[in-house]
Design brief:
This protein is an alpha+beta fold. The protein contains 20 helices and 21 strands. The strands form eight sheets. Strands 5-4-3-11 form a four-stranded mixed beta sheet. The protein has a four-stranded antiparallel beta sheet with strand order 19-18-17-21, with no helix packed on it. A three-stranded mixed beta sheet has the order 7-12-20, with no helix packed on it.
Length: about 650
């Protein structure tokens, strides 16, 4: 009998991979940047070891298969003790985990070998971790055509690699990226998944400790987004003295709505200023809007280009058309030409010009695909009451690989997958050729200068962006620009990277796409009041909008605008504003203060909870004592009545 070995990692020398010896991080860690690099090295090491786990899982599967024997494989194929189950059992014991984790590891290992080898290589190099790789595996699970699967694998790998190793890659961005490529290259995979998901709408409950329980509601993304913002509208009307946290108040608002009872403030004060009457709530709920951006060809069904839902991420073309067909959806048109300076020619002349051929994704080595003129109308956010809206239209998009309706049968990857460069270039060109029409889309010449982005601020107030600038910036970045923050863009402030100078607007940072990004209130305050917090917004040589954030201590992280694929023409437009380098943004005033120190607040919460428990206990004990006294009175009265009857007649 063999036993698993005791860990030898504590004695291993990891300095060669950037991890200092145990204990020295606390004693001699150096600067904040040195410590951050050590943390990043640990993350990369975990990703590499996860990749090695996939290799070991495949090796265990092959060894179990060999032990069963080729002659017995057919006999055990339908058995509950097939090779897969036996392998999962081995992994479960080796990893001291559950069967679910072991089977998930084995499934990911098969995907890394047979379906997504390029994405798996990103795990090996630490560009993504195991959680992100698993999300990609789940997103691509329904792709059956090996050609399309290979293209999705290569596209995801190419896009992540093109971002650069120093660029932050939040998990949500990886999930959105994978969902977008699947929806555009094989929309049937998304439709089937969405139909199955919609059919699986449900409400689940589970018992928690301390007399609590949890309810989980699964519904469409737009309905959950509306419900989430409706709860925010509910708790926004509470008075400042309500004792609940925002999370607890949201839970109470949801339960009140399910029970059909009014949502009330718990301050118990005579001067309560809560505004939660049905009329006041209706006024706030009327401003609950879900914004969705899509291209024109997506709505009319001629393209499978994804849309983007604020607070959720990419949604398939079919899903976008479902949203557009809702009776509560509103559609408004905007003209992208409003952002541009068309030069001496009139807008009508610019609109009548043939469009240059532009690449839908400059990072891909595929052939050019057509794009329409910059004056193509786009749809703007909907102004709907508690409804999904905002189907914004941009220029027509890239290829529809499944336009001909053909679907290749599933099977093992073809032999040509060994030659990625040749095969994928040919495949991409084939897809692009279905959309491109060189006779109708002439090439751009040197005499045609790129359009200039100039009309981005309101004429009467250069500090305020126009409505079109506002929606473009928010959808371009999708969430708070701070790496790792998932606050939806429409719940963020629009922040000037280089500060706007109210006394002399020409000398400060402009109100333009090149100087605006969404930042949530917390990170906006940190930028303003933390000494050494520096940010920058710039456009690289490929036309990609990038943000750079430097924290106090010197650690710098890059972020790429995740939704520029939806407005690819931005890469070919230029801005006339001079570039403003990133600068620190100290404030003249003091930083906002908490009502009490964090530790003091924690102790105050504990004292308040103990006092509430004591009051509840005393009330319970008082009620029990009163009930006991009442019972004693009733017993005595009953006994007196019996005594009044005298002795029974015998």
């Amino acid at each position: 009998m063999e036993r698993l070995l005791v860990s030898t990692w504590p004695d291993a020398d990891l300095t060669g991979v950037g991890i200092c010896a145990e204990g020295t991080a606390t004693e001699h860690g150096g600067t904040l940047v040195d410590l951050a690099r050590g943390l990043n090295a640990c993350r990369n090491g975990i990703a590499f070891l996860d990749w090695r786990q996939l290799e070991f899982a495949l090796a265990v599967y092959q060894r179990v298969r060999t032990a069963v024997g080729e002659s017995q494989l057919a006999a055990v194929e339908r058995s509950v003790l097939d090779v897969y189950a036996q392998t999962a059992l081995q992994l479960q014991f080796a990893l001291e985990s559950t069967r679910y984790f072991a089977e998930m590891l084995l499934d990911d290992a098969f995907a890394a070998r047979d379906r997504l080898p390029l994405c798996a290589s990103l795990l090996r190099t630490g560009r993504i971790d195991r959680r992100r790789f698993h999300k990609i595996v789940v997103a691509t699970d329904l792709i059956l055509d090996p050609l399309k699967l290979a293209l999705v694998d290569a596209s995801i790998h190419a896009e992540i690699t093109a971002l650069g190793a120093g660029t932050a890659l939040p998990e949500k961005q990886v999930v959105d990226l994978a969902a977008r490529h699947v929806a555009e290259i094989d929309p049937d995979a998304v439709r089937r998944a969405r139909d199955d998901a919609k059919a699986g709408r449900c409400v689940r409950t589970r018992v928690l400790e301390h007399g609590m329980a949890q309810m989980t509601v699964t519904a469409t993304a737009e309905d959950i987004r509306i419900a989430d913002r409706w709860l925010d509208a509910q708790v926004a009307g509470l008075c400042p003295h309500d004792p609940r946290t925002k999370a607890a108040a949201r839970a109470d608002a949801a339960i009140a709505g399910l029970h059909g009872v009014p949502f009330a403030c718990l301050c118990a004060r005579a001067d309560c200023t809560a505004q939660i009457s049905p009329e006041e709530l209706a006024g706030r709920a009327a401003r609950v809007i879900v914004h969705v951006l899509c291209q024109a060809a997506t709505l009319d069904g001629s393209s499978q280009k994804c849309g983007v839902m604020d607070g959720h991420g990419p949604v398939s073309a079919a899903h976008v058309r479902e949203l557009a067909a809702r009776p509560d959806a509103k559609v408004r048109l905007h003209d992208l030409n409003q952002l541009l300076d068309t030069g001496p020619e009139t807008a009508a002349e610019a609109e009548s010009k043939p469009a240059p051929r532009l690449r839908a994704n400059p990072t891909e080595p595929a052939a050019d695909v057509p794009a329409t003129s910059p004056v193509e109308p786009v749809e703007a956010p909907a102004e709907a009451e508690s409804k999904p809206g905002a189907h914004h239209r941009a220029n027509p998009d890239g290829p529809d690989p499944d336009r001909d309706g053909q679907h290749r049968p599933p099977g093992p990857p073809p032999e040509w997958l060994d030659d990625w460069d040749t095969a994928l270039t040919a495949l991409s060109a084939e897809y692009a050729a279905r959309e491109a029409d060189p006779s109708q889309q002439p090439e751009t010449t040197a005499e045609q200068p790129p359009p200039s982005i100039v009309n981005t601020a309101q004429p009467g107030d250069p500090y305020r962006p126009t409505a079109l600038t506002d929606l473009t910036v928010r959808f371009l970045w999708h969430t708070c620009v701070t790496p790792g923050c998932g606050r939806p863009a429409y719940s963020c402030d629009l922040d000037h990277c280089a500060e706007f100078d109210h006394t002399c607007p020409a000398s400060g940072g402009p109100t333009c796409l090149c100087n605006l990004f969404p930042r949530c209130r917390l990170h906006h305050l940190q930028k303003t009041f933390l000494d050494g917090f520096i940010d920058d917004l710039w456009i690289d040589q490929n036309g990609h909008y990038r943000s750079t954030t430097t924290l106090p201590g010197g650690l710098t992280t890059d972020t790429v605008a995740p939704n520029q694929w939806l407005i690819p023409q931005l890469a070919f437009w230029h801005c006339r504003h001079p570039r403003h380098a990133g600068t620190a943004t100290p404030s003249d005033g003091p930083a906002p203060e908490r009502s009490m120190a964090r530790t003091e607040a924690k102790h105050a919460r504990r004292r308040a909870e103990r006092a509430r428990n004591r009051r509840n206990r005393q009330a319970t004990e008082s009620a029990a004592a009163q009930a006991e006294a009442d019972e004693q009175v009733r017993n005595e009265a009953g006994q007196a009545w019996l005594d009044s009857l005298g002795d029974p007649p015998f």
